[in-house]
Specification:
By secondary structure, this protein is an alpha+beta fold. 23% of the residues lie in helices and 13% in strands.
């Protein structure tokens, strides 16, 4: 536990100096998958990683990636003391790579449209934009996901060889490739299913929070945020430290309570937080707006826990302040385009 100067308690894992964290504003995500491509081209382009998406964007409500990952178990029991069983996901639940008729269309003169050779039945974000609800009040939103670099990570606890660990300086969860023997207990143990097995290397792999970038090991020696954050067209991600009391992460999470965790009931204490989504009100059959929320609060509570209610209420109050011409620190942080405020990664030695 760490206490900031303003008296706010910030829970850090034992032995960790500081904890990197990310806040994603779901109201900005357009589902373009630019973050997914940025991550994939940097880290998982080949070598047994073809099926891996350390960063993915899925449509909610939806089955996600891998399919039905929220039903596969893992994490901790109600007391946070004992790990709960998890399942290993199959290749089919990730979705097999599709073979396309490139040869026929490009080189053999076929006038068929470019398409998969077989009827696909699943893949990343296969249920894109389907959502839920009935016309004219259907709804969906996008949910970007990476490893949560949890404070209480069940994947770390699951490994009998201590191959997974949290870095002392920033709390990033990594896999020691020399120690890993590919037992996959970490894959089972992660309730978010963000640890992957590389069948070619026979080791587990996962998001590394682009630590070479935040260490300034790029060609220019600059400290850069993770590529999923920097390349995002609507700039929906804030990156910094949970215990940096002057930074937006600390303020949005610990002071204002408007950024909430995904599935807090897994009790791994994720360090990726979300600004929950708003949507236009429902419409009557005649097209009139009515006093009813389009995205049911009950569904948002399933995803983000009971704290989502106060988060949404606070954001509504802050938006009303801006509409009245008053200042709002919350809205300023969520709408800033100043990269020095979006990415605070050089505040600690």
């Amino acid at each position: 536990m760490s206490q900031t100067d303003d008296g706010t308690d910030v829970r850090l894992a034992d032995g960790i100096d500081h904890q990197v964290a990310m806040v994603m504003d779901l109201n900005k995500c357009i589902g373009c998958q630019t973050c997914t491509i940025a991550c994939k081209t940097n880290w998982t382009d080949g070598g047994g990683r073809e099926y891996m998406y350390w960063n993915n964007v899925e449509t909610k409500p939806g089955s996600g990636y891998p399919r039905d990952w929220e039903e596969m178990g893992g994490g901790w029991d109600e007391d946070g003391e004992e790990r709960t069983p998890g399942e290993l996901q199959s290749k089919e639940e990730y979705g097999r790579a599709w073979e396309f008729n490139h040869e026929q269309v490009m080189y053999e003169g076929s006038d068929e449209p470019l398409r998969p050779m077989e009827q696909p039945d699943w893949g990343p974000n296969f249920d894109e934009d389907e959502g839920a609800g009935e016309y004219p009040n259907s709804y969906y939103f996008y949910l970007p996901r990476i490893c949560n670099h949890c404070t209480h990570p069940s994947c770390v606890e699951a490994c009998p060889r201590s191959a997974l660990y949290k870095r002392e300086e920033d709390g990033i969860v990594l896999v020691d490739q020399d120690r890993c023997r590919g037992y996959r207990y970490c894959v089972e143990g992660c309730p978010y299913k963000k640890v992957y097995y590389n069948a070619m290397k026979k080791t587990s792999e996962k998001c590394i929070f682009c630590y070479p970038r935040i260490e300034g090991e790029g060609p220019e020696g600059e400290v850069l945020p993770p590529s999923c954050a920097e390349d995002c067209p609507p700039q929906l991600r804030l990156v910094g430290y949970l215990d940096d009391e002057e930074g937006p992460i600390h303020k949005l999470v610990n002071e204002h309570g408007v950024a909430v965790r995904l599935h807090p009931e897994y009790r791994t204490e994720p360090n990726v937080y979300y600004i929950p989504p708003f949507a236009p009100p429902q419409h009557s059959e005649s097209g009139e707006s009515i006093e009813a929320e389009r995205i049911p609060r009950s569904y948002l509570e399933e995803l983000f826990g009971p704290d989502v209610h106060e988060a949404l209420n606070t954001i509504e109050r802050e938006r009303a302040k801006v509409e009245r011409g008053e200042e709002s620190e919350v809205m300023e942080m969520l709408t800033t385009t100043d990269t020095a405020d979006q990415y605070r990664l050089e505040v600690f030695d």
